[in-house]
TrEMBL record:
Domain of life: Bacteria
Entries under Pfam families matching the protein: HTH_23, HTH_33
All residue ranges annotated as the Winged helix-turn helix domain in the record: 107-156
UniProt protein name: Helix-turn-helix domain-containing protein
């Protein structure tokens, strides 16, 4: 049965008691308490029952205490996908964006060509944001598709309607329709 040897060093015991009472996070307080209980001779099964966790979890806490000491009470980052690009490559992305700020697809293809690693435009955008730059997708305009003559006629008709509303001849809100004033 795995247990922590009795803690005889007063400073370590005091540190664990402070961590149990005033640790920065609940899991640090819980783990410090588990180590203290184990050092007092509580079996791991009983500690697991006290904290309502698996037996293996308590075993891992005690292993971390034995291997790393007080640092073993803190969680390490084990989850999440590893970053595609290292810091040097991210700085290169920043240089490419500074050179061609409106063409993320250019940055994407250039960095893939240089590193052999591919990433989406969204990932490149996140890297840009992480580096303190602002990335906003350009808005696409349909101006080139419109019929300019029809657009000018519509614009003039809209202006006429706004002037008529200002004069009280028409109402823009259909629920409050006003009768037309007689202009004659």
């Amino acid at each position: 049965m795995k247990t922590v040897l009795p803690i005889t060093d007063g400073a370590i015991r005091e540190t664990l008691q402070i961590a149990r009472s005033h640790g920065p996070t609940p899991y640090v307080r819980e783990r410090a308490h588990a180590v203290l209980l184990s050092s007092r001779g509580f079996p791991m099964a009983q500690i697991a029952d006290i904290f309502e966790v698996q037996y293996q979890t308590v075993s891992r806490w005690l292993d971390d205490w034995e291997d790393y000491g007080i640092r073993g009470l803190y969680k390490t980052h084990d989850g999440g996908k590893k970053p595609i690009y290292n810091s040097e490559e991210e700085l290169r992305i920043k240089e490419l964006v500074a050179k061609e700020p409106r063409r993320i697809s250019y940055v994407q293809s250039k960095i893939e060509e240089e590193t052999g690693k591919s990433a989406s435009k969204t990932t490149i955008g996140r890297i840009i944001k992480k580096l303190g730059m602002v990335y906003k997708r350009l808005r696409k305009s349909c101006k080139h598709k419109r019929d300019e003559e029809q657009f000018q006629r519509s614009k003039a008709a809209l202006k006429d309607a706004q002037e008529a509303e200002d004069k009280g001849l028409i109402s823009a809100c259909p629920k409050t329709l006003k009768p037309l004033k007689n202009t004659a």
